[in-house]
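Example for tutorial group B:
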């Protein structure tokens, strides 16, 4: 499997980091997890396109993780000339969110159907709402879900993908919890959204202080990875966004608690397992 960090940014706008999303290429299947700002541009950079997606997985309905979904849906629709169905999997609430996206796109959908004879109807999407513990298959990838903890955001889920004997845990925004442990246990790569608690604490902004209580810090992610024996720990959704010069500092902080490989980088950082 190739795990490509298509968006390593956060809600904070960044010229070089797209909003959170991760693309997995497993055999012939391309599977996207979350669809943050700029996701379709970064998919193109990763040698993929919405039309190639076997499925989209959504961890939760915070805007930074889903604001690019309308672009994924529309581009998938247009590039497949209306023929293909886009499967979307997410927590309860995802179906209503997708319906509302389609409502918002109604003028565009109308224009294109009127103008392109080949388009016979609106985008075809199939939404499957998941509860923690659900498992399913996309392509020949086995996917399981567990509950994560990002209160007051509820529900939130993470994903574990298994293909050809390799395992990737794609965990969204969460504090350490039992569900994350299950997802990341012995994983070849555990991808975790993280903040630098020590740096965020210094930012004199009440809304920034609010994020401290519902995210994993670098230290906590490293402790989780060590506890469950994950072979690699990859950081994404980093707050504050690091510069390459500070990567060694982030790695050193994690290495105090974790003996495996720590991966940190920019958009399109790729892990092969
Ligand atoms: Zn969130
Ligand atoms: Zn987020």
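The residue assignment follows.
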């Amino acid at each position: 499997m190739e795990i490509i960090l298509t968006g390593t940014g956060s809600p904070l706008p960044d010229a070089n980091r797209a909003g959170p999303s991760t693309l997995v290429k497993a055999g012939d299947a391309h599977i996207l997890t979350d669809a943050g700002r700029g996701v379709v541009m970064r998919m193109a950079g990763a040698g993929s396109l919405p039309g190639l997606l076997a499925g989209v997985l959504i961890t939760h309905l915070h805007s930074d993780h889903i604001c690019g979904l309308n672009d994924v849906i529309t581009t998938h629709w247009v590039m497949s000339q209306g023929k293909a169905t886009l499967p979307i999997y997410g927590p309860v609430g995802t179906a209503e969110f997708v319906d509302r996206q389609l409502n918002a796109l109604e003028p565009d959908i109308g224009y294109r159907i009127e103008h392109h004879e080949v388009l016979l109807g609106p985008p075809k999407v199939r939404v499957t709402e998941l509860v923690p513990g659900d498992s399913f298959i996309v392509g020949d990838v086995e996917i399981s879900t567990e509950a994560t903890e990002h209160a007051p955001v509820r529900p939130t889920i993470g994903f574990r993908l298994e293909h050809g004997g390799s395992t990737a845990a794609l965990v969204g925004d969460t504090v350490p919890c039992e569900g994350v442990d299950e997802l990341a246990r012995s994983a070849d790569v555990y991808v975790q959204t993280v903040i630098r608690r020590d740096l965020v604490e210094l930012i004199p902004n009440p809304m920034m202080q609010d994020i401290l209580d519902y995210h994993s810090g670098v230290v906590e992610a490293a402790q989780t990875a060590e506890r469950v024996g994950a072979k690699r720990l990859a950081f994404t959704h980093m707050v504050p966004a690091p510069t390459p010069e500070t990567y060694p500092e982030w790695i050193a902080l994690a290495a105090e608690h974790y003996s495996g490989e720590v991966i940190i980088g920019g958009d399109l950082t790729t892990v092969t397992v």
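Residues 60, 62, 150, 153, 173 surround zinc ion (ligand 1) (CB under 6 Å). Compare this with the pattern of hydrophobic and polar residues in the output above.
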